[in-house]
Write a structure and sequence with these properties.
The chain has a two-stranded parallel sheet. Helix 5 crosses helix 6. The chain has 14 helices and two strands, in the order H-H-H-H-E-H-H-H-H-H-E-H-H-H-H-H. Helices cover about 70% and strands about 0% of the residues. The relative contact order is 0.08. The chain is an all-alpha fold and about 325 residues long. The chain has four domains: about 1-60, no CATH class; about 65-125 and about 250-255, Rossmann fold (3-Layer(aba) Sandwich); about 130-240, P-loop containing nucleotide triphosphate hydrolases (Rossmann fold, 3-Layer(aba) Sandwich), CATH 3.40.50.300; about 275-310, no CATH class. InterPro entries: ClpA/B_CS1 (IPR018368), ClpA/ClpB_AAA_lid (IPR041546), ClpA_ClpB (IPR050130), P-loop_NTPase (IPR027417). Belongs to the ClpA/ClpB family.
């Protein structure tokens, strides 16, 4: 639709009219994408241009199709953000966006959910962990108090100073251990990112070799370099996953639900609650809205449970 009317001025023709002869003679093969509103506004009004195209309606993908699309994009987003994305997070993004975000379309809204959740996690990875930051603040507070007590000469202050010195030493030891763990995890995560980048680069080189029909190089990549890199990546991920982690480098359904909650204002607990849990407490939910209709509420609840369980009245 951006071609129609582009460059039009008095005494000249626009880009759409310049394309018509080329399209009619078959010299130009063109595929365009537009929305139904813009198709009706720009293309449909120009009958000569419209008949040179064959409209193909592309419907919004279902949640199941969106999950497949997200799985195809998974490696690119993992590489871009330097994090891992759980398969459950992609399923959650497709389902929650389809259910709660009504002003946008799939797969765009589900992709944006994954992108924002991964970006948020990456930002947290670059920041100091909350446990370490709490210790740093506590240590600073105690050191300020210690310096003030050193100026006092009374017995109570000297006694408090001795206890404070002991507490400062303990917190500093704990802080140093946490900092060392954090630095080690940061290095491991950085190594994971480098391995993912190298794996992606190797796959691109293999694709280029396939296009060039260089079968020796394809075999070298497919059966040598790529399996070795994948094995190294799995070993590094298992090593990081086996530790008590300060850095979280995996996008889970909880991170996706947090983004949806922030976009929509729906409480996080309601988003994470499954359909089964909602159905089991349906009577409590209805009683809050319907007052004095105990039997009717119970009948509706029983009917809903029977329907979901597949039972029917014989």
């Amino acid at each position: 639709h951006t071609v129609v009317g582009a460059g039009k001025a008095e005494g000249s023709i626009d880009a759409g009219n310049m394309l018509k002869p080329l399209l009619a003679r078959g010299e130009l093969h063109c595929i365009g994408a537009t929305t139904m509103d813009e198709y009706r506004k720009y293309i449909e009004k120009d009958a000569a241009l419209e008949r040179r195209f064959q409209p193909v309606l592309v419907d919004e993908p279902t949640a199941e199709n969106t999950i497949s699309i997200l799985r195809g994009l998974r490696e690119r987003y993992e590489l871009h953000h330097g994090v891992r994305i759980q398969d459950a997070a992609m399923v959650s993004a497709a389902i929650l966006s389809d259910r709660y975000i009504s002003d946008r379309f799939l797969p765009d809204k589900a992709i944006d959910l994954i992108d924002e959740a991964a970006a948020k996690l990456r930002t947290e990875m670059e920041s100091m962990p909350e446990e370490l930051e709490t210790l740093e603040r506590r240590l600073m507070q105690l050191e300020i108090e210690r310096e003030a007590l050193r100026k006092e000469k009374d017995l109570a202050s000297q006694s408090r100073l001795q206890a404070l010195e002991k507490e400062v030493a303990e917190i500093r030891t704990e802080r140093d251990a946490l900092r060392a763990q954090w630095e080690a995890e940061k290095n491991t995560v950085g190594g994971l990112s480098l391995l993912r980048e190298e794996l992606e680069r190797t796959r691109l080189e293999m694709d280029q070799a396939q296009r060039n029909y260089d079968l020796n190089k394809v075999a070298e990549y497919q059966y040598g370099k790529i399996p070795a890199l994948e094995q190294k990546l799995r070993a590094a991920e298992e090593r990081l996953g086996g530790e008590a982690k300060l850095i979280k480098e995996e996008v889970t359904p909880e991170e996706v639900a947090e983004v949806v909650s922030r976009w929509t204002g729906i409480p996080l607990s309601r988003l994470l609650e499954g359909a089964k849990e909602k159905l089991l407490r349906l009577d409590d939910i209805l009683h809050k809205r319907v007052i004095g209709q105990t039997e009717a509420v119970q009948a509706v609840t029983d009917a809903g449970i029977r329907d979901r369980s597949g039972l029917i009245d014989p």
